[in-house]
From TrEMBL, chains A, B:
Transmembrane segments: none annotated. Pfam families: NUDIX, WHD_NrtR. This is NUDIX domain-containing protein. It comes from the Bacteria. SUPFAM superfamilies: Nudix, Winged helix' DNA-binding domain. Residues 2-142 form the Nudix hydrolase domain. PANTHER family: ADP-RIBOSE PYROPHOSPHATASE, SLR1690 PROTEIN.
Amino acid sequence: MPIGLAVSTVIFALRPDSSRPDEPSILSIPLVRRTRDPFAGRWSLPGGVADDDESLADTAARKLYETTQLAPAYLEQLYAFGDVDRAWSGRVVSVVYWALVRSELADQAAEGENVRWFAADELPDLAFDHNRIVEYALWRLRNKMEYSRIAHAFLGETFTLAELRRVHEIVLQRTLDPANFRRQIESSATVVATDEVVSGGRHRPPRLYRYDTTIRLADNGPLGG
Amino acid sequence: MPIGLAVSTVIFALRPDSSRPDEPSILSIPLVRRTRDPFAGRWSLPGGVADDDESLADTAARKLYETTQLAPAYLEQLYAFGDVDRAWSGRVVSVVYWALVRSELADQAAEGENVRWFAADELPDLAFDHNRIVEYALWRLRNKMEYSRIAHAFLGETFTLAELRRVHEIVLQRTLDPANFRRQIESSATVVATDEVVSGGRHRPPRLYRYDTTIRLADNGPLGG
DNA sequence: CCAAAAGTGTTGAGGGTACACCCATGA
DNA sequence: TCATGGGTGTACCCTCAACACTTTTGG
């Protein structure tokens, strides 16, 4: 019997917590409820069998769309999980991706009986080894957030530095000095100031920034460093 | 037709260059000559079809042993390559690992008509997308060498700091300040001094060091951080 | 004017690099 | 005693964290 090949994706977005609607958004991931054994009724990562005439990344993006009706702003391969006993019915190797989607869009994302968003840090017991996979994806996201510039993928076309900083703070779970954060971002030169500012707040209007045009959908991997 | 699943390994060792036997060792990888189409006669990474009742890492280690009669001192998953057209006969997804083996052992490693060691930076045109894979593995190795402490995997049980420094220099292709290298390693606390020194050189006998006992065969991945 | 967040300036600690210098050995 | 690499000390630079301070808006 040949080894089965599956593709799953850990999808991250910042969403308001439904139980605390006035609090700031929290890091969330969508899960799908399994309808079949093994683990019927349990929540699991969106995914499925790899398609014959699609690259693995394309399959991941397609599954992501089928689950959330969203397109990823960032997509990267996480790991290939291949332990012998990880699937409970035959041997299955899962190539897992992780993705970031825009938070404003994620608000409107499909949710239903069998698709629901969960706080990334408070998941129930998932099917298979999916808890371990999410933990690893979380570790990668937080790691990458510190040395890379991917936070913009959670935001829209333009954003203030305060918004960008909030993204970092939510993901990394600690407060950041606004002054130092500003200089860090500016020196990284990954972001360019626009002419516009946001008025309406009871304070000095912040400038809007835009991400540098050379954006790659899927970073890392053997392609772009 | 189901998607084929293969496991390949990029194996690194430091070996003396056969054409310049008096020069220091160079970063080398063993390749196997393909005997069948596609790419019959071309050199390629050791590997093969994934085994049903073996983890992917175990398969990688086994292929490594079958090719070189060696055991890896370090083994880590590199990437799952899954582009549609990368194999020229049907769809094949390759989970690729990279490994480090001890240099003294690699000297005696099997070499024959269909297995040969090449300088990692001067490879011929390989089968499939293996050139690109090796390039990525090289990038990962050099990257990891800078922030992690894996160089010892090229060496034996005990070693001098000069030997460890040479490993870094060969892999990173630049000279390192002995004084600063020493402090860097000592402050990282991954290495412990033994009582022994090496006499015989025309200079002050260097102390031997041993790696800290808590060694993991396969680092990274979802397991150990 | 006041509150609040935007944005700037300044200082000090820590890590890395360059390099001067002493130590221990074999020939 | 000299050459050679082992090993130590130190000054400088650069980055980052902390925090005081000025700016610009809405109320």
